[in-house]
What does this fold into?
Amino acid sequence: MPDFPADFRWGVSTSAYQIEGATAADGRGPSIWDTFAREPGRIVDASTGDEACDHYHRYAEDTALLAGLGVSAYRFSIAWPRVQPTGAGPANAAGLDFYDRLVDGLLAAGVDPVATLFHWDLPQALEDAGGWLNRDTAARFAEYADLTAARLGDRVKLWITLNEPFVHMSLGHGMGVHAPGRVLLFDAFPVAHHQLLGHGLAVAALRARTTSPVAIANNYSPVRLAGDTDADRAAAAAYDALHNRLFTDPLLGLGYPDAPGFDPAVVRDGDLDVVAAPIDVLGVNYYNPTGIRAPEEGSPLPFEIVPLDGYPRTAFDWPVAPDGLRELLLHLRDRYGDALPPIQVTESGCAYDDVPDADGRVHDPERIAYLDGHVRAVHEAIGAGVPVTGYFVWSLLDNWEWAEGFTKRFGLVHVDYPTQRRTPKSSYTWFRDLVRR
Ligand code: BGC
Ligand code: BGC
It folds into this structure.
């Protein structure tokens, strides 16, 4: 492995609903994922996040795993319904106490706390009032950011407003496979704009409380053209605008691209200035490229997503394409030039069906190969002049993978859910050795 700058940030990521459990503890209110997971047929194994990895009670053990890994940063998310059980009103001190203990434990272990404010677990009461379709949710989000930063702003080293607003819009509100389960197709655009507006308002709220840097974490997927007609190229451009530009162009001051569903009537005077509030870091989450060709006649979509041949695949059946990460980092640099802030890869990882062997050890050579390839891709991008300053593995622990329930394991650490026993996999040792170097 080639050398990285000495101050390069190595980390791992998780999110609240996927690991915490304890969904009724200390005054936490219900979130849209508590509701969604209870609806028949939504989650493949009919599980919920009620217990997940029981991290709420085992955070000290998990902090020790982080210390053993030697990472300089840990990206976790804060559950809005712990801080504001109904999404409005004063802070629930008992909910914030948990993150206070976590943050102090991380600092004592020499690990920088990196906090995401919204990783999809909207308070159910806000959903009942329209959720992100309702413009008021943006204002509520800024209020929650203010309450949280008032308590933790002196110790969190990097704030991330939203996680993957594209995925929350498309899977949660366009296709209905994630909470809140709406199937609006391109009528989901207000969810894009109101999340971005909430982001911009939250940036201002955070700036008033802390001098720590502020970021957003977007999901990106380079488009692979599966066809060579003009219609295929138009389809690829439409998909690229939707997945890769809809959230980034306005964040970086370019306004909205001509993406499917974009509705100027949703955007009020002055909104674009709020959305384009300067950020210090752009978080990049990358898993795979997307194959696109022109749609069939009569399709409701202006593109068709097609499987990509010729790649190894993860247990999620996602193609393993580290070159896609290098390509997207170079694209971001070429597309945005001087407007591009430093990048940190805030998620990168893979699911495999990891099973302990007879000695209780978990060998996951595919994950090591996956991470090795993606870390090298980052190194190449840095060599080509892209300002990348960090890399976070998704995820520290096997956890509750949304609609896939407990069936997809992304962790460097294996979790046996019935006993909650944690077993570091061979990828944990590999990543530890990489970080040490
Ligand atoms: C995307 C991933 C994303 C996932 C959400 C996939 O289709 O390629 O990047 O994280 O959906 O579950
Ligand atoms: C999300 C994670 C998720 C991962 C794997 C990302 O889209 O931010 O919460 O577990 O992809 O699907």
